[in-house]
Specification:
Helix content is about 40%, strand content about 20%. By secondary structure, it is an alpha+beta fold. Strands 2-3-1-4-7-11-10 form a seven-stranded mixed β-sheet, sandwiched between helices. The protein has a two-stranded antiparallel ribbon with strand order 5-6. A two-stranded antiparallel ribbon has the order 8-9.
């Protein structure tokens, strides 16, 4: 079982500009609904969307990865030269989809009309990990949550794992110890990688006018660069970086 948590980056800037806040909330709702269509009919899902964040509980951790990939790809594809939609998220071991993530109780010592909302320990842990300081449009996953990572297979039999602890990307310690990146940007057909790379270059260029957004875009671009090295290594094993080769031997 797994908990997928993600929120929208850049909401403070939207509030400061007093524009696009409600539109961003509605966009997240639409993207989550779209991502959930990738699941088989009848798949049990718990949780929901609240303002600028989403928390979902799924029985199969691979379903959480699948929804996360679809959500992050859809948000990435939504970007254009006038507006980008960046997310940051995490997948952790979670409870059953019927479990509650928040509890409303009467506020002690206050009028009976007032209540206090408390989040579950699982959700609080996910929120703290997501806010630990890693940058970019990235979805981290706890290794213990997905013991058998999904792969993309080519016609020649070569495979690319979709969960990696990357060499150059930041994982704040100790919060992100034992976490890796879900490579949501890897297409099902690796021959379609070039259009993905060009999209990222466009978004990096478009974000240059905002130092805050540029920082997030640069961190995302770094993940793209590491993925490109992995894809390149499938056809050029002699040029495979030493750090990647050592990890391939361990798995």
């Amino acid at each position: 079982m797994a908990l997928l948590y993600a929120d929208i980056l850049g909401m403070k800037a939207r509030w400061r500009a007093q524009t696009g806040v409600q539109r961003a909330y509605r966009r997240l709702e639409a993207l989550v609904a779209e991502a959930l269509t990738t699941l088989p009919a009848g798949t049990l899902v718990g949780g929901g969307v609240q303002t600028d964040a989403v928390a979902l509980l799924l029985e199969d951790p691979l379903d959480a990865v699948r929804v996360g990939q679809a959500l992050f790809q859809a948000a990435f594809d939504y970007g254009n030269d006038n507006n980008r939609f960046w997310l940051r998220g995490v997948i952790m071991e979670g409870g059953h989809p019927n479990a509650r993530l928040a509890f409303d109780r009467p506020l002690p010592g206050a009028p009976v009309s007032l209540s206090v909302r408390r989040y579950s320990t699982r959700l609080l842990n996910a929120i703290n990990i997501e806010g630990s300081g890693y940058k970019g449009h990235r979805l981290l996953v706890e290794s213990s949550a997905v013991p058998t990572p999904p792969v993309i297979s080519r016609a020649d039999g070569k495979e690319l794992r979709l969960v990696w602890r990357l060499k150059r990307s930041l994982y704040p310690s100790p919060a992100c110890d034992g976490f890796s990146d879900v490579l949501w940007m890897v297409p099902n057909d690796l021959r379609s990688w070039e259009p993905q790379r060009i999209k990222m270059l466009d978004r990096l260029r478009w974000s240059s006018e905002s130092p805050e957004e540029s920082l997030q875009a640069a961190a995302t671009m770094l993940v793209f660069a590491e993925v490109e090295a992995m894809i390149h290594s499938l056809d050029h094993p002699r040029e495979t970086p030493a750090w990647l080769l050592s990890k391939q031997r361990r798995h």
